[in-house]
Amino acid sequence: MPVRNAAAIAAAAVAAAKTQTVRLPGEEVAAGLVAQLAQEVISLDERIKTTDADIEGRFRRHPLAEVITSMPGMGFRLGAEFLAAVGDPP
Fold first, then answer.
1. Which residue has the higher pLDDT, 13 or 49?
2. Distance between CA atoms of 45 and 10, rounded to whole angstroms?
3. Based on C-alpha coordinates, what's the Rg of the chain?
4. What are the Cα distances from residue 20, in Å, to 13, 23, 32, 47?
5. What percent of the chain shows pLDDT beyond 90?
6. Domain layout of the chain by residue ranges
7. pLDDT, tens digit, for every residue of 13-36?
8. Are 39 and 18 a contacting pair, CB within 8 Å?
């Protein structure tokens, strides 16, 4: 599941780190690691969004997509998971 507001959380963490007035040994190394990890979270969030869009596109092109999504609670994610589990009908 994607991290909600990953970019905002990462930006807030970096902004908070920049306003810190107390200096500690190893702070620069830790700040670099935090910035790197924040960028990785943002990158992963983008990959998840891209993959979600790809799955949705493929699911929507399936001949049974409209029937599956007409069932209560069945969106494209659950519908795609359902098709992956049961396979195509013969």
1. 49
2. 12
3. 21
4. 11, 8, 14, 32
5. 54
6. 6-86
7. 878 877 877 777 887 888 889 889
8. no
**Which structure tokens are listed for 53?**
């869009």
DSSP 37-76: HHHHHHHHHHHHHHHHHHHHHHHHTSTTHHHHHTSTT--H
Residue type, 73: G
Q: What is the rounded average pLDDT of the residues 67-78? A: 94
DSSP-derived secondary structure letter, 11:
H
Buried/exposed 16-44: b ≥16 CB within 10 Å, e otherwise: eeeeeeeeeeeeeeeeeeeeeebeebbee
